[in-house]
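ASSEMBLY PREDICTION REQUEST
Request ID: AP-0331
Submitted by: J.K., bench scientist
Number of chains: two
Total residues: 601
Priority: normal
Notes: Please return the full assembly, not individual chains.
Input sequences:
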Amino acid sequence: MSLNTFGAILTFAIDLEARMTAYYQAAGSADRAKEADKRRAKLQRARQEYVLEITLEAIDGLDEANYVLNLSDSSPAGQQAAAAVATRFYAEVSPHINVRDAQRILEKCGKEYAALAG
Amino acid sequence: MVKRLKNYIGGEWVESSATTYTPVVNPATCELLGECPESTAADVDAAAKAAQAAFEEWRSTPMLNRAQYMYRLKTLLEDRFEDLSEMVVKENGKTRDEARGEVRRGIESVDFAASVPVIMRNDGVEDIAAGIDETTLRQPVGVFAAITPFNFPSMVPLWFLPTAITTGNTFILKPSPQTPISMELLFEIMEDLDLPEGVVNLVQGGKEASMSVMEHPLVRGVSFVGSSPVARIVYETCTKHGKRVQAQGGAKNYIAVMPDADLSASVKNIMGAAYGCAGQRCLAAAVVVAVGDMYDQLKDELVKQAKGLRVGYGLNETTQMGTVISTAARERITKMIEQGVQQGAQLALDGRGVTVNGFEGGNFVGPTIVENVGSDNILAREEVFGPVLTIMKADDFNSVVDIINKSKYGNAASIFTNNGKQAREFKYRVNAGNIGVNIGVAAPSASFPFGGQKESFFGDLHGQGIDSINFYTERKIVIERWL
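STATUS: Completed
Returned structure:
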């Protein structure tokens, strides 16, 4: 599905973090699960607070099919691979967001995953 | 069983004395969401009496306490943010992002109202004559009312209610019968504020309720947002009955695109301005004027980007443009396009007949672009209030200013340019209340008055910002000497 609006991107990110929370919990990584849940809450707040009616613009060139997470592999390598997909997602979507505060949050999420991806 | 909406009067949900009801229909799914009572003069009278009865106690409630209600209201609205925006999508048909943006801007008005204690501070001068001091007091006026439209069912009422009550007045809201449920939800949320009974009242309904509000002797002032013909009636009726009034009407907003503008970025923003909320907003871009020799390039980019917009049901996050409000609105817009074509306009993009899979009965009109529109053409003169964008040509900057200033409306106008001198001239010379520079929707934030000139506004004091404080308060001058 196309990530063609501010809300579509933020909602996908929120959902991604919810799935990562569950994934890290199942993998026994409580700290990482907590961090993912914190990101989810932060993204939810961004979707709510930084939606700016006067600059809402269509977004093109992004599709959620490019950011499929393999959450069946909870090995360290599997966790690294999932973090790499999340890193790429945040790196690719954040330039499309034209509200700097929301963009900053997406960038920060990407940086946190980059650290996990190694 | 379909839900029949109630009124909220004197701190209680009460049945209206209506005998007729307006169906509230989701414009995308055609689902019947509820029935809105056509409240009567008796209902308005009950609300006005409840508001009047609450006034004396409320005005003497310390201002900081009144402001605290706004902080609590903000928290409650943030907690229910998604519910409020979902309801806007369901009853209005706009997209999820647009609905969120609307609720966000409504909350900004609550933020502004929380700052009323700072803004309401009075001024004075000592020794205006020997031993005599002179001061200004701002006092609340009494019962205010607002009659609000379908296109921003959540935001527009919040332009008025929070500031009206924080300044010490009591309030009656009469929302559009096409989108009344957002305000039912707001009043349900506000019940948790535990405001004194009668400070806020909700009367659902249509023309009879509106006329009763405008004519009721206890109502001291009325705010209105809607079409220009109705705004004029509201202004005339309210002034005849000795009331304060701010009546915001329709628009035909122009966007000038100068040859030096960043074309791709400008068009992206113009898309939002023209087709956001399916063109149903008083700040919508209606006419784009290409200045100089860039007409063909601009038209091609507009058509390309407009064609790419995904039309659909607003609850789907990937929808980029929703429905218009009703079947009647869709038919009216379609008819105006036909009339425009009969009068010589040509369609560069025709949005009529658009259907959306799964929502075949929905009131969709796709993005439409018309060109070769003469100055007498209906599409050049009249507000369409739908996703129809007219493209025109102008030889130079002076010509575009003339075109804009000839319009009977004066709500908003924008210029897209990288030339600061031209932007400055545009601000200086264009007769419109809200000016955008590289912004297609020149929507003032809550701390600024919402401008409007010519037939786009009837009254003196606008909604929002310092104007709203002046509208909701009476200034009293005290000249004081102690012997």
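REVIEWER COMMENTS: Chain A has a mean pLDDT of 96.
SIGN-OFF: pending second reviewer
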